[in-house]
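hiii, so i know i said id send this last week but things got crazy w the move. better late than never?? heres the sequnce for the chain we talked about at the cafe, plus the structure i predicted for it. fair warning i was half asleep when i ran it
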Amino acid sequence: MKFFSAKLKSTTDFYTQIALMLVIVLMVNVIFALAPWRVDLSEAKLYSISPVTKQTLKDLDDVVNIKAYFTEDLPGYLVAVRQQVKDLLAEYQNYGQGKIQIKFINPNDNPLLEQEAAALGLPPLQFNVVKKDKFEVAQGYLGIAILYGDKLETIPVVQDTSNLEYNLTAAIKKVISGQSFTIGILQKADNLAPIESLSLLEKVLGQQYQVRAVDLSGDELIGSDISTLIIPGPYGKFTDRDLYVIDQYIMSGRGVLLAADGVRLGENLQATPNDSNLFDLLKSYGVTVNRDLIYDPRYNGQASFSQGFVQFLTPYGFWPRVLKPGFNQDSVLVNKLESLYLAWGSSLDVTGAAGGQILAKTSPDSQVVKDNFNLSPQEQPQGTTGSGNFPVAVLVKTKLSSYFKTPIPRVQSTEEQTTETRIAEVAASKVVVISDADIVTDDFVRLYQENMIFLQNIVDGLTLDESLAAIRSKAVSSRPIDELDDTARTLVKYGNIVGVPLLVVLMAIVRFFWRRKSQRLGDAEI
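okay and structure toks below
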């Protein structure tokens, strides 16, 4: 009887403890629901606004109005988005200290409010909803307008909140500055990659900036409305006038992103050195694009090839991957990134750039191939040299002198000497060179979305504010599995095959003897 009495008391104590735990959990939830406290336990602080945003809000000198046009009766899968937007805007209002005014509006309640939303550039959306066991199409709104005086920026559709803080803070910075920013993509037939091959980059950048092609063929200097210039995949010989136009843009102190191949690929993976004389211009600024290819047998991307009628996917050493240690941890543009992929990228020599800051470099296992390029995925390249850590992206942010002296290269359409005033030097340049032209093209961006994050960070740093990159990079785009050596892989493999079953058997043996012991104690009590 003593045994059954002790067992009953033990069971009662157990249920009492469970009940107390539930009461404590309930009370804690009630307290935190009523109190304005939030604890963000995520590694990257995904659910807290960044120091950049806090400083932006602190520096406001007047009221910024944020109007969120959100339909009240949203489909279930969007209810969480609406609540997350409310939570984030509440933090903006809190840190704004009276300079951020938030207003949530349900346009569906009033036709005049729908007209107001349309006037601000917030379109109505069509939702599929289930009512009375039937699918119906409903109209609603998921947009935000940011107003500062007569200045307006909009976020037409908020489908998720992963980039909402970035979009809001960037919009606040833009309305306060009162400036509009245009990204130019330099174009010239037979010398630069066509803008059609950069449609994805153009589309993504178009969400934040105006984007348009800049024709180099006209010989005219690039207009002052272009805030940042992208030079995609230069090859072949440029005229002196072309180089002068590019040089003078750089001398103006505006941003330049240049993506260039040291080696060009033709049909059937035929590779030849890129003989573009634009590299002479870069060399005068202290950056040399080497005519080589980086090969990394260990850290690389998957490439698709065809052999006859068969397509196959294989790790490809000529698509090297930059790992987290390869990013400059002192640069907010890249220090939160996890990986970056290149396609037939070359190495950079920045020893001549006194103010050159390496943004990314390849792994210690990478090597370079300087000639006799054999790019077959089924063969190991011959003649590889070097000990890794090759620079592949560099920021030149220092004093530069013009590549050109007098006389100024003439406009081809006239024989008269131009009366333009040459800019001889720039006190602080803003030039980013990436040793891979494919990184900006549609085909490669589709394969590796983390490359787009990298490009957006670079464009933001050249155009708006480097610190904005820290907001976008909070949501880590990639968590690659650490590479293991052969010994570690073998241990993991056989640990799974043999170790796990042995662990189960061991647990069964321990449980068997524990139950026998408990049974003997029970018999002794009786």
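btw DSSP finds twelve helices and 25 strands in the chain. thought thatd interest u
miss u guys!!
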